[in-house]
Specification:
InterPro entries: 6-blade_b-propeller_TolB-like (IPR011042), Oryzine_lactonohydrolase (IPR052988), SGL (IPR013658). With about 400 residues, the chain is mainly beta. The chain has two domains: about 5-80, no CATH class; about 90-395, Neuraminidase, CATH 2.120.10. It is built from five helices and 26 strands. Strand 16 and strand 17 form a beta hairpin. The radius of gyration is 21 Å and the shape is globular. About 45% of the residues are buried. It binds 2-acetamido-2-deoxy-beta-D-glucopyranose (NAG) (4 copies). One 2-acetamido-2-deoxy-beta-D-glucopyranose (NAG) binds near residues 197, 198, 199, 206 and 207.
Length: about 400
């Protein structure tokens, strides 16, 4: 009886889906304008590759069946066209092929219209190769204007900022928080990972808010966000400092913490990860997203049977512990790194092929396909998405509006 009714339900469900999707959801969306750099990829067209299909051998190989030259918008669902808008465009705006200058910790400072970000050091890099820099989006706008029509790449100068010795190997950032950049660091050898505020204007002075858990050093702090509503700081801690030979062996589980800057109280709100990485909140502050990049073992390589997964959680109103963990999305290429939301609650993550975007229900809507790893991205106000890709920074001008990350 149970079995019969569930079969009926499945068939009805399939029929309804097939109707809605025939001839195809994507092709039926002629009402929505398709920007020139968009490529529509109907899932119905690649669900069956068949006996001699060209299947991917690894999670680092790209899924680009149209062989389109990046950067472009890969559209799997009509909702991605709404996110992009009819005049969307994407191009590189800064590049340095010899240095991973634009890796993580993107923060938009609205007053000066600058985006701050941290470099990667690369494997076993000297600590002085880890730097925080900024670009001016006013310079970007001027360079684009001067470049004429089309989507020619431009190359504005990234300016390194001088930081005190307490800021060692920045990997995460958010804000502004009371007008300051919020940075989290990996630490370096015996020097502790830390959570710090940094003045976004010269002399870029910093105040470390936290560098231990009741006397124990963190492993290497990875990412940080301000929780909307409580305005407390939440951050992830993972073993990447160790995996990149920057830090001694880890002495704590990889987990997510909540820090209250007013009382100094620090507590764990989520555990059970291989390597927790990016985190983000819905604008109403009720749902948290945490990426687990477990399949990336740093210098030890990739094990693609391990997590490359974004989990969603409810946030307990009293304790602020993350509860009701569920899979939100598994990433087809690479791992989920930094996570951001737009104002409508769509979820964006830096991944192995650029930035990927999911609807609130976890459907993959599309990709900002760069053909290279993106570790994080940031809305610089409505309609401007700045995507970090290690040796380059891309700007996508789109329709989506920014999610507020700052406080107050
Ligand atoms: C697969 O390739 C083999 C060898 O080239 C060929 O004989 C066969 O017909 C192909 N099968 C399909 C379904 O295309
Ligand atoms: C962009 O400019 C920087 C200097 O600001 C330079 O180091 C880099 O090589 C340039 N990139 C390209 C792709 O020309
Ligand atoms: C930077 O220095 C100014 C002047 O002393 C101080 O008011 C401010 O709080 C400092 N900012 C940080 C983030 O340490
Ligand atoms: C990959 O990870 C799985 C699950 O942890 C483990 O069983 C397997 O031994 C790993 N493979 C390699 C090659 O390390």
């Amino acid at each position: 009886m149970l079995a019969t009714s569930s079969i009926v339900a499945t068939v009805v469900g399939l029929t309804a889906w097939a109707c809605a999707a025939t001839p195809s959801q994507l092709k039926a969306t002629t009402a929505i304008a398709v920007p020139p750099q968009a490529v529509l990829l109907d899932p119905l067209a690649f669900n069956v590759l068949s006996l001699n299909g060209s299947f991917r051998e690894s999670a680092t190989e790209f899924f680009n069946p149209t062989n389109t030259t990046p950067p472009f918008f890969q559209v799997f669902h009509p909702d991605f066209l709404k996110i992009l808008g009819p005049t969307a465009n994407i191009r590189a705006v800064a590049a340095n092929p010899t240095f991973l200058f634009a890796h993580e910790a993107p923060i938009w400072a609205p007053k000066t219209d600058e985006v701050f970000f941290a470099s990667a050091g690369g494997a076993m890099a000297a600590i002085d190769q880890y730097q925080v820099s900024k670009i001016s989006l006013r310079d970007v706008a001027a360079a684009i204007k001067a470049s004429g029509p089309g989507v020619t790449p431009v190359n504005v100068t990234a300016t390194k900022i001088d930081l005190p010795e307490t800021i060692q190997a920045t990997n995460g950032g958010t804000g502004l928080f009371y007008g300051n950049l919020v940075l989290v660091t990996d630490g370096n050898g015996p020097l502790p990972p830390s959570l710090a505020l940094v003045n976004p204007a010269p002399p870029y002075n910093a105040t470390v808010l936290l560098d231990n858990f009741f006397g124990r050093q963190f492993n290497s702090l990875n990412d940080v966000k301000i929780h909307p509503g409580s305005n407390k700081l939440f951050f992830t801690d993972s073993t990447y400092g160790y995996f990149y030979q920057l830090r001694p062996p880890p002495l704590l589980p990889n987990q997510v913490y909540r820090f209250d800057p007013d009382t100094g109280s620090v507590r764990v709100v989520a555990d059970g990860f291989d390597k927790c990485n990016g985190l983000a909140f819905t604008p109403d502050g009720k749902t948290a997203f945490v990426g687990d990049s477990g399949s990336n073992d740093g210098l030890l390589g990739t094990n693609q049977t391990k997590a490359a997964t974004i989990y969603a959680f409810d946030i307990d109103a009293k304790s602020m512990a993350f509860t009701n963990r569920r899979v939100f999305a598994y990433i087809d290429t690479g791992i989920p790194d930094g996570i951001q939301l737009d104002a409508a609650g769509n979820v964006y993550a830096g991944t192995g092929d650029g930035a990927q975007v999911w609807g609130q229900d976890g459907t993959l809507l599309g990709k900002f396909f760069l053909g290279t790893v993106s570790s994080n991205l940031i809305f610089a106000g409505d309609g401007r998405l700045v995507i970090l890709a290690d040796t380059a920074i891309y700007l996508a001008e789109i329709a989506a509006k920014a999610n507020m990350l700052s406080f107050p």
